[in-house]
From TrEMBL:
Residues 172-387 form the PPM-type phosphatase domain. It holds the Pfam family SpoIIE. The lineage of its organism: Bacteria, Bacillati, Actinomycetota, Actinomycetes, Kitasatosporales. GO terms for molecular function: phosphatase activity. Keywords: Hydrolase. This is Phosphatase. It comes from the Bacteria. It comes from Streptomyces griseorubiginosus.
């Protein structure tokens, strides 16, 4: 009998485990069912630079690269990597942990020699996915996994912003999207948000005016108002109107939030858009890259009771859309050179064949190279969406 024929029972035991004990439970289950000699859960840090082993916090074991080596390859390629060991003989299987398109990290499982058959690796992948769902759920009740993602302390503003985000990726039959946010540990006013239903995907990128805690408070109010309006079931333009009123009521026009709102009809590819500020939208169709020109309307909260209009355009299967905040398209290097559209087009052209999540990261990496530093002077938010369309 295959040890993994009882996988539903293993998932049930993961669900029954205390939130802080998921790694211990996974280690016990895989030792019993697959003869695993060691099990390590590695979570991607906020900057997607390293994978951090979850151990006895606040101390973690040494992190490994999220882009190099066997574990990094599994995370980047989103497929299992089997590493053959010689002393002692065995296999180290690295399995990506992804929940509905959101990459969380890697599960590394050490197996005895000769036991890493393809079927076993496949079942271990299913187990890793189940563990990922439980880690996501456990985040409601314990700080353990959030702490494990940190290579250093977050600023208070960054803490607020990361708690506000839906994740860093989402995937369905119709689309796959990846998002990246920097500077990860001191982010202030930039935010991205999305929500999907049976027939629609609503996507937004928001840039709250100012810096630090003040920008984070402004963005939190803006995103909360947009979500409140969206969940009331009203149209995209009215969502912008209600959020505009909420921000103006609080700040009286002294500060405001630039926002781009997009609503995709999943069956037809029709996109409704409200451009309320500075985020820019680009479309990559085949080898052609073009900016999607939208009517620039007032940022949210600048004036009282501003009215907003929707525009429409279509996406086709194979299209890639990229949304960048002003911290990307308006950024200048130390010598005053604008990062701008030309540099962005170069990166997008070079990453056409890479997944959406890697393209979003590549844009921010290119921005860092432009500045000559890992520490960006302004917040930078990037969303990349690959549109597949709905099959008949």
């Amino acid at each position: 009998m295959n040890a993994f024929e009882s996988l539903p029972s293993m998932e049930a035991q993961l669900r029954a485990a205390p939130p802080h004990a998921l790694v211990v439970t996974a280690r016990r289950l895989l030792a019993e069912r697959a003869g695993a000699q060691d099990v390590t859960l590695l979570l991607a840090d906020y900057g997607l630079a390293v994978l951090q082993p979850v151990s006895h916090l606040p101390h973690t074991e040494e992190p490994v690269s999220a882009h190099e080596g066997p574990a990094g390859s599994a995370f980047t390629r989103q497929s299992p990597v089997v590493e053959d060991l010689s002393d002692p003989a065995g296999h180290l299987v690295h399995l990506p942990i992804t929940v509905r398109g959101d990459r969380l990290g890697v599960l590394s499982v050490r197996l005895p020699a000769g036991t890493a058959a393809p079927e076993t690796v496949l079942h271990l992948g299913d187990f890793a996915t189940a563990l990922g769902h439980e880690v996501t759920t456990a985040g409601r009740d314990t700080d353990l996994y959030l702490q494990a993602r940190r290579t250093r302390r977050l600023t208070l503003a960054a803490e607020m912003q990361w708690q506000l985000l839906p994740g860093r990726g989402c995937a369905r039959e119709e689309y796959a999207l990846g998002a990246h946010l920097e500077p990860a540990y001191s982010i202030g006013g930039d935010n991205f948000d999305w929500s999907t239903s049976a027939d629609h995907l609503v996507l937004s990128v928001t840039d709250g005016m100012g810096e630090g805690i003040n920008a984070a408070l402004l963005t939190s109010l803006t995103v909360g108002a947009l979500r409140n309006a969206r969940r009331a079931g009203i149209g995209l333009a009215d969502q912008a109107c209600l959020a505009d009123q909420a921000v103006f009521a609080q700040y009286g026009g002294k500060v405001y939030a630039s926002t781009l709102l997009l609503e995709f009809h999943l069956a037809t590819g029709l996109v409704r858009a409200v451009d309320a500020g500075s985020p820019q939208l680009f479309r990559q169709r085949g080898e052609r890259i073009e900016r999607v020109e939208l009517d620039a309307q007032l940022p949210l909260g600048m004036f009282e009771e501003t009215l907003y209009d929707e525009q429409t355009f279509h996406v086709e299967p194979g299209d890639r859309l990229i949304v960048v905040s002003s911290g990307v398209h308006g950024s200048r290097s130390a010598t005053g050179d604008l990062f701008g559209e030309r540099a962005l087009r170069g990166i997008l052209g070079a990453t056409r064949s890479t997944p959406a999540y890697e393209t979003a990261r590549a844009v921010v990496s290119g921005l860092m190279d432009h500045h000559g530093s890992r520490q960006l002077p302004a917040d930078a938010a990037v969303i990349c969406l690959d549109w597949h369309g709905r099959t008949a």
